[in-house]
Amino acid sequence: MSGKKEFWKDRRVLVTGATGLIGSWLVEELLQERCFIVSLVRDFIPDSYLFHSKNIEKITVVHGNLEDFKLIERTLNEYEIDTVFHLGAQTIVPTANRSPLSTFEANIRGTWNLLEACRRLTIVRRFILASSDKAYGSQLNLPYTEEMPLRGEHPYDVSKSCAELLAQSYFKTYDLPLVITRCGNVYGGGDINFNRIVPGTIKSLLEKKPPIIRSDGTYTRDYFYVKDAVLALKLVAEEIERKDVRGEAFNFSNENPLSVFELVEKIMDLMKVRIKPQILNISCCEIKHQYLSSQKSKKILNWKPKYTLEEGLLETIAWYRGFFKR
């Protein structure tokens, strides 16, 4: 598990996507490790955990976007970045379906810009690409394992598949020191996109309203706590110099897939509130069943999740109770 003593102290780290769910919590974790953190921030999002935790006041912020190659190259060079955590992306599936070109620009062009800047400067010693189970697309057999081909079909899924293929090409061709992580549906406090099932359900129940289910409720997913995702990112960065880690992709999951119905029921049980969900059945261009095997991570990295689903959900519910009180 992650936790090499003094590994992160004074290390110069770039985090893209630091206003997002995983990025916000990664910044908090790295601050505790006494890193020097630089973040590329496009939009001011006051409800982001990065802002209301006040962690943004403790890091160096570069204002701009991933599509600006010169800005990325300048940032890496002037701040002498040693480690890159690339989480910056347009991550909302319905948004990607409505506007595929902007999603491709951010997720694909943004990734190749960062990879190319790292290649040219040669000062970056570790590059962690945060991908997704969506990169696998539709497969005949589940759970997803790392040797399966990347077969994204819909705009967001394709953008993740392409980003991974680009990263793999930079490793194979230029020996860029990188690792790819693939997580299931990450949830946790600080997610302010209430169209997502976990924060949306908690918000509805706190307001004594019916939870909204966009699908028919039978879609199956992994649900992975954000603090476990952060620890996984740190772990692969710490182990990247190993030959059996460098250039590899690793799945991270609790290996406990649930249907949307089952997840909503579990949240209602934990909150001790029973309100019949409203089923919209309007989901479009999403794969019905997706979940991951984490056996490779367990075998090679000696990894295991720190939190059960119940523990993660209880912390998440408590976070939103405090958030809405404020």
What does the average pLDDT come to?
Answer: 95
Structural class: alpha/beta
Poorly predicted regions are none
> What is the percentage of strand-forming residues?
15-25%
> At CATH's second level, what is the architecture of the domain at 12-188 and 225-254 and 291-306?
3-Layer(aba) Sandwich
Largest sheet: number of strands, sense, barrel closure: 7 strands, parallel
For the record, what CATH class of the domain at 12-188 and 225-254 and 291-306 applies? Alpha Beta
Number of helical elements:
11
Could you tell me the CATH topology label of the domain at 12-188 and 225-254 and 291-306.
Rossmann fold
What is the succession of H and E elements?
EHEHEHEHHEHEEHEEEHEEHEHH
**How many E-type strands?**
13
Question: What coarse outline follows from CA principal-axis ratios?
Answer: globular
CATH-assigned homologous superfamily of the domain at 12-188 and 225-254 and 291-306: NAD(P)-binding Rossmann-like Domain
Q: Tell me the Rg in angstroms.
A: 19 Å
- Helical proportion? 40-55%
Strand order of the biggest β-sheet: 3-2-1-4-5-6-11
N-to-C terminal Cα separation, in Å?
35 Å
Q: Can you describe what's shown?
A:
This protein has about 325 residues and is of the alpha/beta class. It has a domain at about 10-190 and about 225-255 and about 290-305: Rossmann fold. It is about 40% helix and about 15% strand. The protein is built from 11 helices and 13 strands. It has a 7-stranded parallel sheet, sandwiched between helices. A two-stranded parallel sheet has the order 7-10. The chain has a two-stranded parallel ribbon with strand order 8-13. Strand 1, helix 1 and strand 2 form a beta-alpha-beta unit. Helix 3 (about 70-80) runs parallel beside helix 5 (about 100-120) and helix 7 crosses helix 11. The chain is globular, with a radius of gyration of 19 Å. It starts with 11 loop residues before the first strand and ends with a helix.
